[in-house]
Amino acid sequence: MSRKVKKIIFVCTGNTCRSPMAEVIGKNILNHPIEIISRGIFVSYSSGANEKAIAITNKNNLSLEQHQAKPFDINEVENNTLILTMTDGHKLMLLKQYSILNNNVYTLNEFVGEKGIIEDPFGQSIKAYELTFNQLNELISKLNNKIEWEDNE
């Protein structure tokens, strides 16, 4: 699977753990200056990133200190926006609510040709956050080979 991409939106549940980590990893390792953001499906109020997610990203010389959780907004989807969810459930919720996204939304695993999902570490040990970070890092590293970059104008 390969496609032209101008923008990536990583999506998880609350936009405090997985998708913000995916966002900072993506900004760090993807070799092209495209817009990379993260959003959540169920964000009832804007909060910062989870403290364990902040600790793990800091340990890896990345920062979530300024992150504020934001809900998914269909108005942020443009031509050649790639939406990468953490689970099949997130993907199905987006497709049910916005059928227009049919060719834009995939699970991150699916898009890079892997099976499985990215489990939510919320409420678990710092080790669970580290495992999630490492899984995201590995999967996002594979994105460079799956994307044809479209220059932002």
TrEMBL record:
UniProt-listed InterPro entries: LMW_PTPase, Ptyr_pPase, Ptyr_pPase_sf, Tyr_phospatase_low_mol_wt
Catalytic residues as annotated in Swiss-Prot or TrEMBL: C12, R18, D120
Database matches in SMART domains: LMWPc
Domain of life: Bacteria
A Pfam family assignment: LMWPc
Signal sequence extent: none
GO molecular-function term, one example from the UniProt record: protein tyrosine phosphatase activity
Name this protein carries in UniProt: Protein-tyrosine phosphatase
Source organism of this protein record: Natranaerovirga hydrolytica
